[in-house]
Design goal:
The protein is α/β, with parallel strands linked by helices and 234 residues long. Helix content is 41%, strand content 15%. Strand 5, helix 10 and strand 6 form a beta-alpha-beta unit. The longest helix is centred in the middle third of the chain and has 18 residues. The structure holds zinc ion (2 copies). The site of one zinc ion (ZN) has 8 residues, from helix 3.
Length: 234
Amino acid sequence: MRRLMGWAADLLFPPRCALCGEVLAVKDCAEGLCKACREEIPFFPEDKCPRCGGKTDTGGFCEACLRPFAFESACAAFPYERVRTAIHLFKYRGGKGFGEGLGRLAAEYLRQTHTELLSGVDVMIPVPLHPKKERRRGFNQTILLCRAVSAETALPLCERGLLRRKDTTPQSLLSPAERKENLRGVFVVNADVAGKRVLLVDDIFTSGATCGECARALYRAGAESVRVFCFAAA
Ligand SMILES: [Zn+2]
Ligand SMILES: [Zn+2]
């Protein structure tokens, strides 16, 4: 019976590549990645700013892209268009396996490109979802990704270090100015971050308004520094 159910589940949710979301050939299932992604994992190139595509020497955002934000630095593991399908499947179909695969690779990216984060951060704090949204979805995808990164890198994780106070209009429906206003006072620090170097983690970096507002809340609570790590940047 169990075998039959496993077989039915494979038909409904065939194993897919953790990065591009392609259905996997049987021989690739153990790896969790398709051949193309395995041969060249599409990490963000070290010398390219994930936001503007311009030159950078930090492996993260260039100076101009950082200027509007409260956080000290920001980086992203993958260009969004390369992992769009996997993130979508993970978010909306609750594919936990994807989270682990993506999380493991994100840890690999940190080890390759950002050793300064692995040794210079006290705690990882994920950007919270609104509780209603999390209940509807059943999980916060960023927390699941963080768990995988924490397991791989031994970076301490404070899953509920930030809470979201009120429901907001989806940021995608608003202008940049409205986005800022929409998020004012929304994030509440729920951990002792005084004097701590925080790695704020989000799944996808888009306008940066959310990460910027979270960083401001963390600084107000006494954080020594706030750096941002996103799984993907658009
Ligand atoms: Zn793939
Ligand atoms: Zn830039």
